[in-house]
Amino acid sequence: MKVLVIGGGGREHTICYVISKSVGLEKLFCIPGNGGISEIAQINENISPNDFEKILQFCKENEIDLIIPGPEEPLVKGLKDFLEKEGIKVFGPDSKSALIEGSKSFAKETMAKAGIPTPKFEVFDDPNKAKNYVEKKGAPIVIKADGLCAGKGVFVCEKKEEAINAIEKIMEEKIFGEAGNKVVIEEKLIGEEASYIVITDGYNFRALPTSQDHKRLLDNDEGPNTGGMGAYSPTPLIDNKLKEKIETKVIAPLLRTLEKEGHPYIGFLYAGLMIVNKEPYVLEFNCRLGDPEAQAILPRIENDFLELIESTLEGNLDKIEIKEKDLPAICVVMASKGYPGKYEKGKKIEGLDKASQISNVIIFHAGTKKINNEFYTNGGRVLGVTALDKDIFSAIKRVYKAVSFIKFEGAHYRKDIGERVFKYLSSF
Ligand code: AMP
Ligand code: GLY
Q1: Rounded-to-10 torsion of CA 203, 285, 258, 68
Q2: How far apart are alpha carbons 259 and 82 in whole angstroms?
Q3: What is the C-alpha to C-alpha distance for residues 374 and 234, in angstroms, rounded to an integer?
Q4: Which residue has the least CA distance to atom 1 on ligand 1?
């Protein structure tokens, strides 16, 4: 089978890594890919993940059988709808189901219909009404732009003025363009966040290993929010009882509701949860794998990944069990100086060989470029260094040993990825 992965981050390197081990793989391609991906797949950096016509042409030229999109944007824009008309299989939801991530108001309204626990909310398309609501409700309060904003559209506001300011920026100044035509305003919850990702054929689903992201830039969860600075899997925050609650109160009702509306959801479905008093509340759904969660989750899955995806597409997921390795994994993101704001590119990366010689260490590339057999930084998040070990404590040691060998100018990484586990283990 000839497979094309769409995207060029750490998540896509991880997808390529597990697919490259699949028995049924004939040839692997990736658009646009990155330096690390270029070592295991044929990449084409000149095609954008959102240029559907060029992707179609590429598929025809290379006789692609299956496309696996990594990021949300092409799915929300209708990549599946477009390519399946041409007879090319796409593993992901159609544009209507992908709205579960593409529109926060659609997601919240669908959750309300399905009875899924989520923070109380209101949707507004008029900034004055939104501001009046904030005046009435007071702070803390959360303001969310409706559409896709590359992870920047959520404002958790401790003061009323911040919330009013966020509404003005989103709805009046239109800093996110059309994505700010509506806002969702919701109550702020206090708890612990976790990521619950399933693979689904629209009717059946199987949970992937649990995980937890570290969204803030700095140690002790300080500094600005980022795309994610590290992840570990599994998380003791989600025990079997909580798993069952998540599956019966969140995942199953969502799939039933989308299916009833004529859009069974196929692909990876990610529930971003806040756990409050051992109860799950959905903060967001994503129509894809998490990044960097994928870097910690996928290496822990024993199943042949391509077979898993093909069985799902054929509607045979009910016959499959996900086999999880009994080795926890931890992924530490190494980022460019300045990320998540402005950063420079083109810094030479050294020590990758030495780091990857440590057993059970995998180095996933995110923003890198390969020039004359050397790797250079080419993005905000540069690498996702991942280690597996017999327990999370040993995995932490192993991953930071690997990280210590890798050098590039301005490299920034958190030193406390996975340490939250200690807190959970003592309180559960
Ligand atoms: P979202 O993209 O909706 O998941 O929001 C991004 C981040 O904002 C989440 O990972 C949380 O850290 C925070 N957040 C979003 N909604 C809420 C909420 N209702 N209460 C507390 N924190 C929130
Ligand atoms: N790591 C969070 C996300 O992928 O949305």
Answers
A1: -60
A2: 20
A3: 34
A4: 284
CA of 403 to the centre of ligand 2 (A): 22
Measured in angstroms, how far is the CA atom of residue 17 from the centroid of ligand 1?
30
Sign, CA torsion 278/284/285/290: negative
First-to-last alpha carbon distance for the chain, in angstroms, is: 45
Find out whether 377 and 319 touch, Cβ atoms under 8 Å.
no
Query: Tens digit of pLDDT for each residue in 320-372?
Result: 999 999 999 999 999 999 999 999 999 999 999 999 999 999 999 999 999 99
So what CATH class is 2-91? alpha beta
105-109: long-range contacts at Cβ-Cβ below 8 A with a sequence spacing of 24 or more?
105/146, 105/182, 105/184, 107/284, 107/285, 108/184, 108/186
Separation of CA 397 and ligand 2 centre (Å): 24
Atom 8 of ligand 1: nearest residue by CA position? 154
For residue 31, the cross-strand partners are 6
CATH code given to domain 192-426 = 3.30.470.20
The protein residue with its alpha carbon nearest to ligand 2, atom 5, reads 290
Q: What is the pLDDT of residue 365?
A: 98
286 lines ligand 2 (CB under 6 A): yes
pLDDT in tens, 269-294: 999 999 999 999 999 999 999 999 99
**Residue 228, ligand 2, Cβ within 6 A:** yes
Average pLDDT over every residue of 150-157: 92
Residue 179 beta carbon below 6 angstroms from any ligand 1 atom:
no
Global pTM?
Answer: 0.97
State how far the Cα of 173 lies from the Cα of 166, in Å rounded to an integer.
10
- From the CB of 146, is ligand 1 less than 6 Å away? no
| pLDDT tens, position by position, 85-125 | 999 999 999 999 999 999 999 999 999 999 999 999 999 99
pLDDT exceeds cutoff 70 at 67: yes
CATH 3.30.160.270 given to domain 120-187: no
Mean pLDDT, rounded, of the chain? 97
Q: Which amino acid is at 95?
A: S
Look at phi and psi of residue 63 and say left if phi exceeds 0, alpha if psi is from -120 to 50, else beta.
left
Cβ neighbours, 10 Å, residue 102: 23
In this predicted structure, what is the pLDDT of residue 427? 65
Per-domain residue ranges for the chain? 2-91, 120-187, 192-426
Compute, in angstroms, the gap from residue 58 CA to the centroid of ligand 1. 38
How far does the centroid of ligand 1 lie from the alpha carbon of residue 359, in Å?
Answer: 36
